[in-house]
Amino acid sequence: MIHMSNVSKIYENGAVALDGVDVDIEKGEFVFIVGASGAGKSTFIKMLFREELPTSGVLTVNGHDVVNMSHKEVPYLRRGLGVIFQDYRLLPDKTVFENVAFAMQVIEAPRRLMQRSVNAVLDVVGLRDKYNCFPAQLSGGEQQRVAIARAIVNDPAIVIADEPTGNLDPDTSWDIMDIFKRINKAGTTIVMATHDRTIVDTMKRRVIAIEDGHIVRDELRGGYGYEA
Ligand SMILES: Nc1ncnc2c1ncn2[C@@H]1O[C@H](COP(=O)(O)OP(=O)(O)OP(=O)(O)O)[C@@H](O)[C@H]1O
């Protein structure tokens, strides 16, 4: 599902964010990316949806050659991915329903399918009754649940999340993780960068630890493993 071979990323200012990374992630896995601030986690995540390109190496995601693809192919890569950020990134002037539906309009889904799919994912995240609210009328946890609904409405093969619980309190964070668990159980691959030690230690999923741009640990049922 995700294959990285000898992937390096050097930013224009010379910062080496990743250095010779090899990793394979299979369909249906749930993977945490951990590491200290500046270790390279966000760079790893951004390369998966081609927000950043590797400087060298091989990267394939969901059957797409991310390095050698044309600009025209990028939307097809992204169609198979659901991306979730720490700061939700909802459209402030659109309702909950419209925020989620927007992801389907982009792929020109038929109207009736859109209505049905948006309602279904709002049920998954428990927000059907808030469909007419604007983001500013929601709590942080609710906003993140809308962002998850938006990410999964097109039934992506992979959900990619960069610190999705970073702005949330522990109880709300667990609500989010419960949704991720359910999505993963239904077969979706999940790759999540996080600083949340408790979540990583409790979930006991695969953990890839990055330090100074290198993978220093890759365990199938791992823990956070760093002092906070
Ligand atoms: N756009 C950029 N331009 C230049 N250097 C960058 C850029 N983005 C990241 N870096 C550098 O690359 C390295 C890795 O950054 P990255 O954001 O991937 O780390 P991180 O593990 O996600 O950190 P955090 O946990 O603080 O988000 C750091 O040294 C950072 O300063």
Description:
The chain has helices spanning 41-48, 74-79, 96-106, 111-124, 140-152, 170-185, 197-203, and strands at residues 2-10, 16-25, 30-34, 56-61, 64-65, 81-85, 158-162, 189-193, 206-211, 214-219. With 228 residues, the chain is of the alpha/beta class. It has one domain: P-loop containing nucleotide triphosphate hydrolases (Rossmann fold, 3-Layer(aba) Sandwich). It has a six-stranded mixed sheet, sandwiched between helices. β7 (158-162), α6 (170-185) and β8 (189-193) form a beta-alpha-beta unit. It starts with a strand and ends in a 9-residue tail after the last strand. The protein binds adenosine-5'-triphosphate. One of its GO terms (biological process) is cell division. It is a peripheral membrane protein. Belongs to the ABC transporter superfamily.
Describe this structure in a few short sentences.
InterPro entries: AAA+_ATPase, ABC_transporter-like_ATP-bd, ABC_transporter-like_CS, ABC_transpr_LolD-like, Cell_div_FtsE, P-loop_NTPase. The protein contains seven helices and ten strands.
The structure class reads: alpha/beta
The top-level CATH class is Alpha Beta
* Unique ligands: adenosine-5'-triphosphate
Overall residue-averaged pLDDT value: 94
Provide the helix percentage.
25-40%
Q: Can you tell me the CATH superfamily?
A: P-loop containing nucleotide triphosphate hydrolases
Main β-sheet, in a few words?
6 strands, mixed
Strand content: 25-35%
Give the strand tally: 10
Number of helices: 7
Number of domains: 1
**Element order, helices and strands?**
EEEHEEHEHHHEHEHEE
> And the CATH topology?
Rossmann fold
Low-confidence stretches: none
Shape: globular
Task: Quote the distance from N terminus to C terminus.
Answer: 31 Å
Membrane topology: Peripheral membrane protein
Subunit structure: Homodimer. Forms a membrane-associated complex with FtsX.
Keywords: ATP-binding, Cell cycle, Cell division, Cell membrane, Membrane, Nucleotide-binding
Function: Part of the ABC transporter FtsEX involved in cellular division.
